[in-house]
Amino acid sequence: MFQLTPFNSTYDRTSFLCGSDALDRYIKEHVTQDIRRRIAACFVAVDNDHNIIGYYTLSAASILLTDLPEHLRKKFPRYPTIPAIRMGRLAVSLSSKGTGLGGALLADALYRAYTSEIAAYALIVDAKDDTAVAFYKHYGFMAFPESGRTLFMPLASLSTIK
Predict the structure, then answer these.
(1) Would you give the DSSP letter of residue 51?
(2) 44, 68, 157, 160 — which has fewest CB within 10 A?
(3) CATH number for the domain formed by residue range(s) 3-158
């Protein structure tokens, strides 16, 4: 069992290990600074002992209108950019890999982005490798035409999900 909640410095993050040095170091050393500076919000999955077993970050972003596929671009006024939310990091502890926690964290991020009182067109992600690209595409994300590792999901596509 796990609980999804906003990051709290009382949770144990010292033992978090996901297999990526950058993601491990971020949750252990940098997340509190980013939250304090309002650069990112962090949400965590914690187990019954309050150990962090997964996390993701969200921050404000924008999409250049010209970066969208043509069929989507036509639907917008000719603004140079449109608002979005970026999921900058998504990490699952090695002990929780293969349990569906990554999908649960992604679903939580999409839900928070969709229900936010601040308007945003899409959730953007930067996949670190081809495995991550496949993970996001499995959940319906589309790649930007000029950047195969930056993907997005229009939040309006979630309106049918309750």
Answers:
(1) B
(2) 160
(3) 3.40.630.30
